[in-house]
Amino acid sequence: MKHAYVVLGVLYVVQGLPFGFQASALGLYLRSEGVSLTAIGLAGALAAPWLLKALWSPLVDRYGSARFGRRRSWIVPMQVLLAGACFVTALFPPGAGRALEPLLVLVLLMNLFAATLDVAVDGLAVDLLRDEGGAVQRSLALGNTIQVVGFKGGMLIGGGLLTWASQWIGWSGHFVAMGALVLLALALVLFVREPPPRASQEAPEKLIGVLAVLASTLKRPGTWGVLAIVATYKTGESVIDPMFSMFLVDAGYSRETLGLWLGGYGMGASVTGSVLGGLVATRVPLVRALVLVGAIRSIPLALELGLAIVGEPSPAAVISVSLAEHFGGGMLTTVMFAFMMWRVDPRIGASHFTFLAAVEVLGKMPTSLASGWLADELGYVGTFAIGVGLSFVWLGVVGLVGLRRPRSGVAGEVT
To answer: CATH number of the domain at 2-404, out of 3.40.605.10, 1.20.1250.20, 1.20.120.80, 3.30.310.50?
Structure first.
């Protein structure tokens, strides 16, 4: 099992590289080129593959070479395509009057390849972690800790450390380094043999069977409450996060400095929070853990609102609040992913977990896309206040659903 955790961790790092660039660095580059806040907020649509991947996830569950590996049949090609997209992106630096369209298309393609890779890796994680012993929650919590830490480690590299290092290695060096890391991970995967699925994990023989099982999961008791929790857990954060770095740019901080503080220090705090969130998920029933960690998560969002009210925050204040915000977000994400995987039917692990992940993206996408427009219309203070309010509304949703959850022994039930 230990080697499985290593492989999963490396693969999640790879997936986090392009997402980290978009989440932490792309907006800084665009703002430095004079792009409006509304347009930067709408650039979040480049992450659409992370939502739409649910449309092709049944193909990942149904098709794959038994000889090469059901999941590796998808993992290896997606890594090759992702590395190629990184190398091509190195040829299209922004600025100097260059059109931004090729860069945006390449970011979209990187997200497409990484999102499809994520489907296959999530399926592999379900196969490896959903054992039939009595320690399922512990196994899922540890696996999801590695999942979140690995993904955010990739975000730290792609959106933080390499952005900071770009002052020396340049734009091309940034993306050549990303592509090289993807190829290194590919070399590891090629030497790992995927275990055959157990009888309880075998996918239906036909694609229509995969879709039928996925549809049947919606009839489980408590499913719609679960979907409500998943869909709304990041709505408050998604209003504030895209504009917090823009607020700091407008306050006079350079993109290289913010890349280090937010994408570097902040992501390090997020990884630490993810580890602690995994520990909480092994010791506290998952619905209670969501309420506890969600309350902790709301505090730094309120502190970001305080910085916006101040208007010209000091470096110490920016770093402190950013560390707290990333730490709380890391805790909540790990607990949420363990909660989601607990509900997954292992026969269609890739499709079912991807469906839940798509619900999570769908829930936060409208507020994320509207964040720039809100900032243009209401200013940073008004926008951040809305985000804080939504965060507390979500706590109410979790409390309500948790009190009403069914107590029958349904597969995946959380007690």
So the answer is: 1.20.1250.20
Q: In this structure, what DSSP letter does residue 346 have?
A: G
**Model pLDDT, residue 412:** 37
Q: Which of 237, 235, 381 is nearest to 300 (CA)?
A: 237
Question: Which residue positions in the chain have pLDDT lower than 70?
Answer: 1-2, 64-66, 95-99, 129-138, 195-206, 263, 402-415
pLDDT at 95: 67
Residue 26 CA to residue 375 CA, distance in Å, equals: 18
Token pair 């209670």 is found at 288
Q: For residue 44, with 0-12 CB atoms within 10 Å meaning exposed, 13-18 middle and 19 or more buried, which class applies?
A: buried
Q: How far is CA 33 from CA 30, 96, 99, 123, 351, in A?
A: 5, 9, 11, 40, 39
Task: Please tell me whether residue 302 adopts helix, strand or coil conformation.
Answer: helix
- Alpha helix (H) residue ranges in 64-135: 72-89, 101-129
Q: What is the pLDDT of residue 413?
A: 38
Q: Quick check: pTM over 0.85?
A: no
133's tokens: 């012993």
Q: Is 335 exposed, middle or buried (0-12, 13-18, 19+ CB in 10 A)?
A: buried
CA–CA separation, 154 and 13 (whole Å): 4
Give helix 136-155 / helix 101-129 axis angle, nearest 10°: 160
Residue with tokens 């990187």: 110
Residue 185, pLDDT score: 92
Q: Tell me which residue of 143, 97, 115 sits closest to 55, measured CA to CA.
A: 115
Question: 196, exposed or middle or buried, with CB in 10 Å at 0-12, 13-18, 19+?
Answer: exposed
Please say whether the dihedral angle defined by the alpha carbons of residues 235, 238, 239 and 244, taken in this order, is positive or negative.
positive
